[in-house]
Each structure stands twice: as structure tokens, then as C-alpha cells.
Design the sequence.
């Protein structure tokens, strides 16, 4: 293993890491937003919309991200919608993640005792006040383990971005191996950079989980 | 007739083709305490839930202060602010402290000033003997303490009527007394209440009027609670009361 080679590759990997994180976290943010809205629609059984959300989650959970990306990147232009690789990656990840987050938050909502809804209602709260002050904080707390697992899963899924020529970590490693054949160095760097991106998330997630293990508050 | 605070006319409630309430007529006057007793499944809790808009009704009318209650979001919200409810299970919000639990609705729903509501909250907490627990989370409290906080949370909305739905049924026996004491104090200070309970001694002590419910109807109504508990007029009430003797 040639350390000098590895050091010379560092700036390329660093740029790739920034790009991967940028696209990855944007995708996660979209996913969380979709998940919050989608889970509320399903939980409150909003007419029609609930079927659309169910169809959406089934579609995106049961097809590979790669296929979804190909659709957005290669098929949408045929009907006149062209997007850049970065936008495609962001939305592909966001839509896939949205389906997972919807399921995660929905189970969080389902775990909240009915009496919590009723006592919020009996205090005269509107639906949105109840959701914002009473239901959401509890649902998010009990969804934390699933949420953390989803975030790690989504950030790892960014590795398929290389197929739509987005210069993420995976793309950079493959590219460098193709050009200079320093396979071991490139792969070791790849592992290190993925760990740099994901270990903090994992550790932070564990800490959060431990604090909220019983979905209880205080103490 | 509309000078009664709460007036229920021919209230019908069905659930999955079972009739739960078979045309209830009831008037509750200001300052009056009505206690509803009866076997499980007789519809007494359902009645309270209907009055709080937690259940749809299939027929009948509910008047509050002479005004017919309509089923729309705005009316229901203002009705719920006037008709407070405390439930059997501990229903405090677990992610909020005692004080936050109490302040949430007056500040967010009634848009009252936080400082003013907080001062009132502290007064009420003092009254139920829990001022020192204001920063605790519900899980740090006993069942009896939680129910006392739930009562405060309902009271701070300044409800015209308070509905208490078996509020001691889930409590350990030694906690029952501290909660009922709070309710007795409320009755003395003139609160209007509709109470569902299985605590017969308490019912006897607090009630201005007793209703005995069975199969979704009022079987016996008595303005003399002491007499009712000693000599109920109907056979069914007699049998029910007998089941509390050992």
C-alpha cells in the first residue's frame, strides 16, 4: 500500500465526500419531510390521499434505487423533463427515503395511545395544534431508532449515484482505479471516507436511542 | 327550560348497530353535581364522551347555556373549552413537564398571556398540593398525582362544566382518597360537574343528584342521594348496589 499515492488522492476524495454528503443530506431532509406528511395522511386516514401515499410507499420500497434513478435520469428526459445528476440523485434518494420514513413515522404515530389524541382534543386543540404540540414530539421520539437506521441506509445508498455520473465517493474510487490501477489504496480510502461520513451519525444515533429507549421523557 | 347550564335532549348513540344510549334526557344546573353510576358497558362513559364531542351521536341535541351545539370544528373547540374532561387513564402529555402540561391549552388554544396563566397554574397546583412538582415529568409522578394534575389542566381552561370519567378507577387504593378530596373541594366551591364513578361512598358524599344507568338508559334518578343509596326504588339499582357489599 503506497501512502504517498493515498495522500495525493485525498483532495479528490474530500471533494467527493462533500458532494456525497450534500446530496445525501438533502435527500434525507426531503425524505423526512415526505415521511412526516405521508405518515400523517395514513394515520389520520385522509380520503383518497391515503391511497396515493400507500401506492407511493409500496412502489418505492419495492423497487431498487438504481431503477428509480434510471427512471428519473434517463426516462424523464424522453417526456421533456431533464434534470442534472445532482438533482436526480437528491430527489431519487428523497423519494426512496420518503417511503421508508413514512412507514417509520407511521409506526411511531400508531404507538401513541389513543388517550393522547383525545385529551388534546378535549382541551379544545385544533388538529394542527394537537399534531404539533402533542403528537409529533412523541411520534418522533419513538421513531428515533428507525429514523437513524433509515438515515444510515440512505447515506450508504448514495453509492449507486456513480451510475448516473454523479462524482460521489464511489464514482471517484472507480474512476481512479480505472485510470491508475491503485486498487487497494483506492478501496481503503473509500472505506475510510464512508466511515468518516457515517460513524458520527451512527454514534450520535446510539446516544439518542439510549436516551429515548423507553420513549419516556425526563430523568 | 333553557336556563339549565347543560341540557341533553333525546340523545341517541349507536355503535356497530348496537344502541349504546337510548334517548337520554338530562338537565344539569349551574353548581350542581350529578353522579352517574351503573354496571360496566351501560353507556355512562359514552355519555360523557358524547358531551365532549369525542363520539358522534346518531340523534338528539346538546345545549350548552341554551345554545345548540353544532358539529363543526370551531364550535367543537369552543365547546370543549367550556366542558372540561378528565379521563380514567393517565392522560398527561409525557414529553412535557407538569407546568407545560397545564399551560399548553390556555396559551395555545385560548391565547391567554403566559405569565397570567402561569400565576393561576401555580395557585391551582398549590390547591392540589403539588406546587413543588411543577418541573417534574409525568413519569416521575404517582398515579394519584397525575390525576390531580389532569384536574388542574382541565380547570385552568375555566370550564363551565367538568366531566370526570372514572378518574380513580386505574389508581391504587391509597391514591384514590387524595384525588377524590380534590373533587370534593371543587364541589364545595360551586363547580358544576358530571361524574362517572364506581366509588359509592364518594358518590353518596358528593352528589346533588344520582343517576343509575343500565343498558343505555336512565333507570333511576334521585335528588336525594343518601336515600337512594339506602333504599333504591328500582329492583335493578338495588341489585347493582348490592354487588358492592361483601
Sequence:
Amino acid at each position: 500500500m503506497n501512502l504517498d499515492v493515498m495522500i495525493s488522492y485525498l483532495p479528490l476524495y474530500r471533494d467527493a465526500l462533500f458532494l456525497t454528503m450534500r446530496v445525501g443530506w438533502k435527500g434525507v431532509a426531503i425524505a423526512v419531510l415526505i415521511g412526516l406528511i405521508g405518515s400523517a395522511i395514513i394515520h389520520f386516514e385522509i380520503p383518497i390521499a391515503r391511497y396515493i401515499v400507500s401506492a407511493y410507499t409500496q412502489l418505492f420500497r419495492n423497487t431498487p434505487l438504481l431503477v428509480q434513478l434510471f427512471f428519473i435520469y434517463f426516462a424523464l428526459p424522453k417526456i421533456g423533463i431533464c434534470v442534472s445528476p445532482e438533482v436526480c440523485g437528491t430527489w431519487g434518494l428523497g423519494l426512496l427515503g420518503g417511503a421508508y420514513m413514512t412507514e417509520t413515522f407511521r409506526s411511531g404515530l400508531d404507538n401513541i395511545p389513543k388517550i393522547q389524541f383525545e385529551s388534546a382534543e378535549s382541551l379544545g386543540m385544533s388538529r394542527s395544534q394537537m399534531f404539533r404540540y402533542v403528537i409529533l414530539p412523541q411520534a418522533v421520539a419513538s421513531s428515533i431508532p428507525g429514523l437513524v437506521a433509515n438515515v444510515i441506509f440512505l447515506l450508504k445508498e448514495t453509492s449507486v449515484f456513480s451510475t448516473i455520473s454523479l462524482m460521489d465517493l464511489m464514482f471517484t474510487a472507480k474512476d481512479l482505479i480505472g485510470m491508475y490501477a491503485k486498487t487497494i489504496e483506492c478501496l481503503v480510502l473509500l472505506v475510510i471516507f464512508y466511515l468518516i461520513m457515517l460513524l458520527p451519525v451512527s454514534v450520535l444515533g446510539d446516544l439518542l436511542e439510549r436516551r429515548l429507549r423507553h420513549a419516556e421523557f425526563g430523568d | 327550560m333553557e336556563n339549565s347550564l347543560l341540557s341533553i335532549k333525546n340523545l341517541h348513540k349507536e355503535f356497530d348497530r348496537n344502541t349504546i344510549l337510548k334517548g337520554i334526557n338530562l338537565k344539569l344546573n349551574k353548581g350542581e353535581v350529578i353522579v352517574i353510576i351503573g354496571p360496566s358497558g351501560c353507556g355512562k362513559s359514552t355519555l360523557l364522551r358524547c358531551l365532549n364531542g369525542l363520539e358522534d351521536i346518531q340523534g338528539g341535541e346538546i345545549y350548552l347555556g341554551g345554545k345548540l351545539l353544532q358539529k363543526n370544528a370551531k364550535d367543537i373547540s369552543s365547546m370543549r373549552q367550556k366542558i372540561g374532561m378528565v379521563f380514567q387513564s393517565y392522560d398527561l402529555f409525557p414529553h412535557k413537564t407538569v407546568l407545560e402540561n397545564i399551560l399548553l391549552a390556555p396559551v395555545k388554544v385560548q391565547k391567554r398571556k403566559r405569565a397570567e396563566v402561569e400565576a393561576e397554574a401555580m395557585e391551582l397546583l398549590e390547591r392540589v398540593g403539588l406546587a413543588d412538582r411543577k418541573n417534574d415529568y409525568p413519569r416521575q409522578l404517582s398515579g394519584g398525582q397525575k390525576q390531580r394534575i389532569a384536574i388542574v389542566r382541565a380547570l385552568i381552561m375555566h370550564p363551565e362544566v367538568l366531566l370526570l370519567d372514572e378518574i380513580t378507577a386505574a389508581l391504587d387504593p391509597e391514591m384514590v382518597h387524595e384525588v377524590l378530596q380534590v373533587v370534593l373541594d371543587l364541589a364545595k366551591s360551586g363547580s358544576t360537574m358530571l361524574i362517572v364513578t364506581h366509588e359509592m361512598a364518594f358518590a353518596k358524599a358528593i352528589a346533588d343528584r344520582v343517576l343509575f344507568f343500565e343498558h343505555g338508559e336512565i333507570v333511576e334518578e334521585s335528588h336525594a342521594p343518601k336515600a337512594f343509596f339506602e333504599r333504591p326504588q328500582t329492583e335493578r339499582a338495588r341489585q347493582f348496589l348490592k354487588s358492592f357489599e361483601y
About this structure: Chain B has nine helices and ten strands. Residues 98 and 133 of chain B are 7 Å apart (CA to CA).
